[in-house]
Amino acid sequence: MEIFRLVTMLVCLFETTLGGLEQIFDDQGLTSIPLNISGNVTDLSCEKNAINTIRTVDFNDKYPHLSSILLAENVITLIEDGSFKGTKLSRIRLRKNDISVIPDFSEVKSTLTTIDLAVNKITELSVGDLSYLTQLTTLNLLSNRIISVADGCFAGTNLGHVILDKNLLTNIPDFLAVNATLRTLDIQSNELVDVSPGEVSYLGKLENFYLKGNRISLLPDLAKYLPSLTKLMINELPLQCCCGMAWMKELSESFSVEMDTRPCVSPSKWNESTWDEITGEMLRREPCEIDASHWIRCQVTSDIIMASRVKEHVEANSDYLNEQENMSITGAFRVDKCPSAYVVLSAKEYDHRV
Ligand SMILES: *[C@@H]1O[C@H](CO)[C@@H](O)[C@H](O)[C@H]1NC(C)=O
Ligand SMILES: *[C@@H]1O[C@H](CO)[C@@H](O)[C@H](O)[C@H]1NC(C)=O
Ligand SMILES: *[C@@H]1O[C@H](CO)[C@@H](O)[C@H](O)[C@H]1NC(C)=O
Ligand SMILES: *[C@@H]1O[C@H](CO)[C@@H](O)[C@H](O)[C@H]1NC(C)=O
Ligand SMILES: *[C@@H]1O[C@H](CO)[C@@H](O)[C@H](O)[C@H]1NC(C)=O
């Protein structure tokens, strides 16, 4: 339902300019931008053609009223630097092309608000790719091949909605520079294995957070770290139902979570239970697994505990832990903003349900 709303919103952003002149050249086998476009055009559509290059001569100093260009489903590989000069381009749709770098939009840096580059071949976002786009509010990069997003690369923009669904990200990009504006972050179907409080706790305006289809097993208390959050999508995660996730049983009515009916991949005793069948008390009593022979029992609060970081520590101290069957650690695992103390349990203790 959320996706649907988001899509609707994006579609609305591409509605034609009120009182403007719309010209449509869709599905005409064009291999370049046509020449017979009215000088008064406000909304231009050349979708489903075979255009492979946008040249500076295609738009520069020809269409002073042009504010929306739709070019989805072409075969564009190149948009020449310095294109779109003399337009007032606000929205551009380049979905389903063959673009591998963020094009140069510097000629329209003070008008461009919405870029749709979904289903292209972009592999990275570098500092400077977007930072001159001071009006940019919406960036759609669904289904690219993004493996890296440089720290600070959103600085200077006004981004409120960022869609990174279906890429190859292993961590949440740095959105600090847009934390006053970012309201929707869609990072579904990437390669995330965890979300640390430090990666998200500065996102004070984030309302919609979509994490579906990653490899995350434990989530920090997002309701606490993200004060504006109202919608969380966490379906298709290999969730571990343990004390670290107990915060999800304490959410307010206004907070909506979209998750699988049977969300617990582990412990296996609960893998066929519905989320409703598992109470907060059951979660609080269940230690979180670090690896096949160590668990952590949450104390003090139900805060998590970046399991991967604890795991590193356990590995580094494995001899010690093996000797000390029952190692009580208070403070050693204070990770990021997490104030909790933990007890690391060995397999034997876990079996005995300490
Ligand atoms: C533009 O020219 C093409 C042929 O080059 C023609 O098929 C098309 O109808 C023309 N469109 C307009 C809006 O004049
Ligand atoms: C553009 O708009 C002007 C003023 O509204 C009008 O006079 C002119 O005929 C229009 N040109 C075209 C090509 O539609
Ligand atoms: C943005 O992050 C900074 C640094 O963490 C923080 O001081 C500020 O309150 C944050 N702004 C919002 C709106 O969350
Ligand atoms: C639940 O776990 C048991 C034991 O590990 C396994 O046999 C079963 O296939 C699992 N069920 C699901 C739905 O994954
Ligand atoms: C293990 O820790 C518990 C409390 O956390 C304590 O009661 C128990 O005596 C300890 N066992 C050993 C063998 O130190």
* Gyration radius over CA: 24 Å
Can you tell me the overall shape? elongated
Which structural category do the helix and sheet elements fall into? alpha/beta
Q: Give a quick account of the main beta sheet: strands, pairing sense, barrel closure.
A: 11 strands, parallel
Overall pLDDT score = 84
Number of helices: 8
Percentage of residues in helical conformation: 10-25%
The H-and-E topology, N to C, reads as: HEEEHEEEEEEEEEHEHEEEEHEEHHEEH
Query: What is the rounded distance between the termini?
Result: 42 Å
**Unreliable stretches:** 1-12, 300-308, 318-342
What portion of the residues fall into strands of 2 or more residues?
Answer: 15-25%
Order of strands in the sheet with most strands: 1-2-4-6-7-9-11-12-13-14-16
Bound molecules: 2-acetamido-2-deoxy-beta-D-glucopyranose
Number of strands: 21
Describe the model:
Keywords: Leucine-rich repeat, Repeat, Signal. This is LRRCT domain-containing protein. With 354 residues, the chain is α/β, with parallel strands linked by helices. The chain has a domain at 288-351. Helix content is 14%, strand content 18%. The chain has eight helices and 21 strands. The chain has helices spanning 2-13, 56-59, 197-200, 222-225, 280-285, 307-316, 318-323, 347-351; strands at 22-24, 43-45, 53-54, 68-70, 78-79, 91-93, 114-116, 124-125, 138-140, 148-149, 161-163, 184-186, 208-210, 231-233, 239-240, 256-258, 264-266, 288-291, 294-298, 328-329, 342-346. The strands form five sheets. Strands 1-2-4-6-7-9-11-12-13-14-16 form an eleven-stranded parallel β-sheet, with no helix packed on it. A four-stranded antiparallel β-sheet has the order 18-19-21-20. A hairpin with a 2-residue loop joins strand 18 (288-291) and strand 19. The longest helix has 12 residues, at 2-13. The two termini are 42 Å apart. The model is unreliable at 1-12, 300-308 and 318-342 (pLDDT under 50). One 2-acetamido-2-deoxy-beta-D-glucopyranose is lined by residues 176, 179-180, 202, 204-205.
